[in-house]
Specification:
The complex is a heterodimer of chains A (420) and B (430).
Chain A (H helix, E strand, L loop, with lengths): L9 E2 H4 L3 E3 L5 E11 L8 E9 L2 E6 L3 E5 L2 E4 L15 E3 H5 L3 E4 L4 E4 L2 E7 L2 E8 L2 H8 L2 H4 L8 E2 L3 E2 L15 H4 L3 H10 L2 H10 L2 H9 L3 H9 L3 H10 L2 H10 L2 H10 L2 H11 L6 H4 L6 E3 L4 H9 L9 E5 L5 E6 H6 L23 H11 L3 E5 L5 E6 H8 L15
Parallel strand pairs in A: 2-7, 15-16
Antiparallel strand pairs in A: 1-11, 2-3, 3-4, 3-8, 4-5, 6-7, 9-10, 9-14, 11-12, 12-13, 16-17, 18-19
Helix pairs in contact in A: 6-7, 6-8, 8-10, 9-11, 10-12, 11-13, 17-18
Chain B lengths: L14 H8 L3 H9 L2 H9 L2 H14 L4 H25 L3 H42 L4 H17 L3 H12 L4 H8 L4 H9 L7 H14 L2 H14 L6 H33 L6 H5 L3 H4 L3 H32 L13 H18 L6 H27 L2 H4 L6 H28 L1
């Protein structure tokens, strides 16, 4: 606003409690809150007005009616005040009520920050919410009497556009929060954020993500935390997330849920998803059977390299990770061929000649630690899992085993306080 | 090529699959998963200060203040339930909620109260450690610094869980008081009258004892601890009934033990007219049970309960303050990342150690005095908790109902009346 030359940012804490004045400077009331609109699409929301306490009532004062807004008070432009009572509206945030003193998510820093003060900046005639201040300086500004507090200059602030607002468990109004910043994060980063939030907020954030992104992030969390987040979810959505997960992760999640809820979710899934999941759930947690993926690339023992490659390239074929599994006509494992060997070989060579004799299969009830030892012993990235009859059940990959034997801090649930 | 397949048929049946088939009820599942925080919090709450208070009350007044333990125990249940419920419904700690609801100034006030009360409580624990050590012939200037270093290492850097079990097991030795109380053949009729008939305090000393009793039963730090523990465990609204059961059970166990300590000391020390001014005298209440081993039994139990609480109190103080102001916190952070957190932890523990090592400090009296301090600071903290538990914006349908409010309001009123009465009496006698 050209009428309010304010080069430095304005601190919200100094505006709250400031007098509402008529154009001659007479006191009409007190500024109680400031209102910003979220849906403008700009990273910095615009201040649309303020809530003022006048003669015992909360009135709405549009920003357009103000001639000046600074620490000396809110000066009305018009000779008289329009008495519009204040009411809450969707997509509006009250800075004192909804934002100040709450925690917000610093997306880049992946940590929670306490909003100790907020900074407003005039941009092209509009006042916009630009920054979040936290630390000793804003705390002092709010603790000291106004006369002293106004001498504490605005300090370094976190850009509002880099932070994520977290509505409480029971939001008063509907808010359309832009979540693109979150969708751009890698699953592990998202997971470390989810691990830090109070779970009602974590759940709200999870609900805002597309099912695939939610599934990827959940897989990085400790199974108990995953279960807690999914438990309160609407079941259709929970099933959609489950469907987006790889089978071994989905099995882990269902295994951590209360049994009856796990069963209800399984029933909601299409059969092609739920059947392999149920098969995995037959095995105890942290065994090769539970950790394996049941969909593995297989080629017949009689094939040539050329035929094998053609089989693998079919659109519906499972994508090979490190190994291609050679099976006989009854589905029994004959051996494994490293993907590299297959790619480098002559097209006419039989796949049987490429089998790596060092890679040995594990049984589905083998505990994760044993699988890890064997992975190291075979120098392999994955191992086939076979039953007693030699039937190929699936393959267990090194990264899935690692998540059990050497979990990341987030997976291990290390955000604990008292369980050092 | 041949694979080395074993021939026996394996049974690929994980237990979840079994449970899935039988369709066990969800409630049982959740109930078992949620047990724990309340019991540990209550055990920690039955700390050195609480034991000392019970011993002194029993020895000096006999049975007639027993009602105060019963009533404050009920108050403890009400308050702990509110905090556990808030933790399960919001997933946040008490300090976090205080900050959001009451803003900066009130938060600074609440945190000041908490830091003072918790420093006092830490003094009580270190005094308990010193007293126990002296029972075993170890001087306090050896035991206290050793305990402080060991606790800091345990809580901050080593796996705390196994140590916690050892402390709990030691603290469980205090259950011996139940047997000792029965063996001492107390006057059960007097016990019953003392439990059920509230007797007004006769003088300033007894009024102070009443505030001390409330302060020892409803310790300020326990409320922060139980809520943080519920949040930490990740209990959700689905596990609410189990969380409640856990807290209530914990509070009852703690209260019953305390009542029996009072009965045991009243039946022995008070009946014999023994003045209790140190731990050795306090241990004599266990003589009907343990004979010459009484001192060792009391010392080990006191040591366990003191160690259990001495680690938890500075930690939860640091955590609560950092939570309120949004500073980095938690033992998973490096010292450089969370200087305020580690500074507060070390500060509380260090100040308490200096106080306890003050030459000639009467240990038992220091333990009781810290509970009086806690009792005096309890009123405002209870007011914060009560207001929060009534906040429908925060808890929705899980906010206090009329019954919870009646019970909690009565507790708060009683605490405030006792505090004011004590202040008035103290001013009047000055």
């Amino acid at each position: 606003m050209g009428r309010t030359p304010q080069p430095a940012p304005l601190c919200v804490s100094l505006l709250l409690g400031a007098p509402l004045r008529d154009r001659y400077g007479g006191r009409l009331g007190v500024v109680r809150d400031l209102i910003v609109r979220l849906d403008s699409g700009a990273p910095w929301p615009e201040v649309t007005g303020l809530v003022a306490r006048v003669a015992g009532r909360d009135l709405f004062v549009p920003y357009a009616q103000l001639a000046r807004l600074d620490t000396s008070g809110a000066w009305l432009h018009e000779p008289r005040l329009h008495l519009a009572p204040f009411a809450r509206r969707d997509n509006e945030l009250l800075l004192a009520t909804d934002v100040l003193d709450r925690q917000m998510l610093d997306v880049a820093g992946r940590r929670l920050v306490r909003v100790d003060d907020l900074q407003l900046v005039p941009v092209e005639g509009r006042l916009r919410l630009a920054g979040i201040e936290s630390g000793v300086r804003p705390l002092l500004r709010r603790l000291l009497p106004r006369e002293l507090a106004r001498h504490i200059a605005p300090g370094p602030a976190l850009d509002w556009g880099e932070a994520e607002y977290l509505p409480g468990p029971l939001p008063v109004v509907r808010l359309q929060l832009p979540r693109e910043r979150l969708a751009r994060l890698r699953p592990a980063e998202l997971a470390s954020i989810l691990a830090r939030l109070a779970y009602p907020e974590a759940r709200a954030m999870l609900d805002a993500l597309p099912p695939q992104a939610a599934a990827d992030a959940l897989e990085e969390l400790a199974p108990r935390r995953q279960a807690h987040l999914v438990e309160g979810m609407e079941e259709g959505r929970a099933a959609a997330i489950l469907e987006a997960m790889v089978p071994e992760s989905a099995a882990e999640l269902v295994g951590a849920l209360p049994p009856a809820q796990g069963e209800r979710l399984l029933r909601r899934l299409p059969e092609r998803v739920s059947t392999p999941l149920r098969d995995l759930l037959h095995y105890a947690p942290a065994t090769a059977g539970r950790l394996m993926t049941p969909r593995v690339p297989t080629v017949p023992a009689t094939a040539t390299v050329g035929e094998a490659l053609a089989t693998l390239r079919r659109p519906d074929a499972p994508r090979p990770r490190a190994l291609v599994f050679v099976v006989d006509d009854r589905g029994r494992l004959v051996g494994v061929v490293p993907l590299g060997a297959l790619v480098m070989a002559e097209l006419q060579a039989p796949v049987g000649s490429l089998i790596d004799p060092d890679v040995r299969a594990v049984r589905p009830d083998a505990p994760a630690a044993r699988v890890a030892e064997q992975l190291a012993a075979c120098d392999a990235l994955e191992l086939p899992v076979v039953d007693a009859a030699g039937q190929l059940l699936g393959a267990v990959a090194a990264d899935d085993v690692l998540q059990v034997v050497a979990p990341s801090p987030v997976r291990a649930g290390a955000a604990k306080v008292f369980e050092a | 090529m041949r694979w080395p397949f074993p021939t026996a048929r394996s049974r690929p049946l994980g237990w979840p699959a079994l449970v899935l088939r039988r369709g066990a009820p969800d409630r049982l599942w959740r109930g078992l998963a949620a047990l724990g925080p309340g019991l540990v919090a209550a055990a920690a709450g039955n700390d050195a200060g609480g034991i000392a208070t019970a011993v002194v009350v029993g020895a000096t007044t006999g049975y007639h203040l027993l009602w105060a333990f019963l009533l404050s125990g009920l108050g403890l249940i009400v308050v702990q339930e509110m905090c556990a419920r808030m933790g399960a419904l919001t997933g946040r700690g008490l300090a976090d909620l205080i900050r959001e609801r009451f803003r900066v100034r009130w938060t600074v006030f609440a945190m000041l109260l908490l830091v003072v009360a918790n420093s006092g409580a830490t003094v009580a624990q270190l005094a308990g450690i010193a007293a126990a050590a002296e029972l075993f012939g170890v001087p306090r200037w050896v035991a206290v610094p050793l305990a402080v270093v060991a606790l800091a290492a345990l809580v901050l850097r080593l796996p705390y869980r196994p140590a916690e079990r050892v402390f709990l097991a030691l603290a469980a030795l205090l259950l011996a008081y139940v047997a000792a109380a029965v063996l001492a053949r107390p006057d059960w009729e007097a016990v019953g009258r003392g439990l059920l008939v509230p007797a007004l305090p006769a003088d300033l000393g007894e009024a102070a004892l009443l505030v001390t009793i409330w302060g020892s039963q409803i310790t300020p730090y326990m409320q922060f601890f139980v809520q943080a523990a519920v949040v930490d465990k990740g209990a959700t609204e689905h596990e609410l009934s189990a969380v409640r059961l856990d807290t209530i059970l914990g509070a009852i166990v703690a209260n019953v033990v305390t009542v029996f300590v009072v009965i045991a000391t009243a039946a022995t020390l008070h009946a014999a007219g023994v003045a209790v001014d140190d731990a050795a005298a306090a241990a004599r209440a266990l003589e009907p049970l343990a004979g010459s081993l009484a001192a060792a039994l009391f010392g080990a139990g006191l040591l366990g309960s003191a160690l259990l609480a001495a680690g938890v109190i500075p930690l939860s103080t640091a955590y609560a303050v950092c939570e309120a102001f949004g500073w980095e916190r938690g033992v998973s952070h490096a010292l450089r990342e969370a200087p305020a957190f580690y500074g507060l932890f070390a500060g509380v523990l260090g100040v308490a150690a200096v106080v306890v090592l003050w030459p000639g400090l009467p240990l038992l009296r220091a333990m009781v005095a810290s509970q009086l301090l806690g009792g005096l600071l309890l009123g405002p903290l209870l007011a914060f908790i009560l207001l929060l538990a009534n906040d429908r914006r925060l808890l929705g349908g899980g906010a206090n109902g009329p019954r919870a409010n009646l019970a909690a309001g009565a507790t708060l009123l009683l605490v405030v009346v006792l505090e004011l009465a004590l202040v008035a009496l103290a001013l009047g006698s000055a």
